[in-house]
Write a structure and sequence with these properties.
The chain contains two helices and nine strands; from the N terminus they run ββββββαβββα. It has 116 residues and is α+β, with helices and mostly antiparallel strands. The strands form three sheets. The chain has a five-stranded antiparallel sheet with strand order 3-7-6-5-4, covered by helices on one side. The two termini are 28 Å apart. 25% of the residues are buried.
């Protein structure tokens, strides 16, 4: 998702939503992340969130992988010395990221008839 950038002619990234095959452990959880919420297998950080679709979704979507993962990433901005996140490390960012991933996961599961 891109948004017009007032500082240049090039749009800036707002977020990226990726739906992909996943052959890894669906219960993986990065350090400092929080659970996605009841009814979902996944985790949330202020700049990234991930959910695994319910069992059976991968096959219904035509995948040979055991899982399908929905990943949301917020863009970061490179500083002079280090990379700084555009997303504040606070609870609203976590709630917003969780809501986007939960909604995308729910709609995909419903579309493919594999809701839990």
């Amino acid at each position: 998702m891109l948004r017009a950038n007032a500082d240049s002619d090039y749009p800036r990234g707002v977020y990226t939503l990726i739906i992909e095959d996943n052959r890894n452990d669906p219960h993986y959880k990065p350090k400092n992340s929080v659970p996605l919420g009841p009814g979902f297998t996944g985790w949330v950080l202020p700049d990234k969130a991930e959910a695994n679709l319910p069992a059976g979704c991968a096959a219904r979507m035509g995948s040979t992988a055991p899982n399908i993962t929905v990943t949301l990433t917020a863009p970061s901005k490179k500083g002079e010395e280090e990379e700084k996140d555009l997303v504040d490390r606070d609870a609203p960012a976590i709630r917003n990221n969780a809501a986007v991933v939960q909604e995308a996961s729910t709609k995909l599961a419903k579309k493919y008839g594999c809701a839990a």
